[in-house]
Amino acid sequence: MKMVLAMIRPHKLDDIKAGLSEIGVQGMSVTEIKGYGRTHGQTETYRGSAYTVEFIPKVRIEVVVPDELVEQVLTVLETTGKTGKIGDGKVFIYPIDEALRIRTGERGEAAI
User: Fold this and answer.
1) Which stretches of the chain are assigned E, i.e. beta strand?
2) CB 65 within 8 Å of CB 112
3) Is 3 helix (H, G, I), strand (E, B) or coil?
4) How much is the pTM?
5) What are the CA-CA distances from residue 103 to residues 2, 28, 98 (Å)?
6) Would you state the torsion angle of the CA atoms of residues 98, 99, 102, 107, taken in this order, to the nearest 10 degrees?
7) How far is the C-alpha of 7 from the C-alpha of 82, rounded, in Å?
8) How far apart are CA 10 and CA 7, in angstroms?
9) How confident is the model over 18-74, as pLDDT tens digits?
10) Mind listing the domains of the chain with CATH numbers?
């Protein structure tokens, strides 16, 4: 099993959620976050004055999937989350040693 952690543009969440549902991903955790990457924020103009927004709003998605589904998840994230502009986000993959569904006691892939 693997955990796929993605930080994406907020307006892309619905497209990504729909794409993940199509390939069989049944659940995910979503958190609103703020951060910056190489650009260290962006410059905005308000009433003629320029100011820097240091932390850009993003959405963090976490899904745990069987190993054989990881490539499909990455494809969905890339194709539906990509705008081609700086700030599209990042994806990280973590190994998951064990999972437990508290309600039923199921373990491993049966728990996800």
Assistant:
1) 2-8, 29-35, 42-46, 49-53, 56-65, 89-95
2) yes
3) strand
4) 0.85
5) 22, 18, 16
6) -80
7) 12
8) 9
9) 999 999 998 999 999 998 887 766 666 667 777 677 788 999 999 999 999 999 999
10) 2-111 (3.30.70.120)
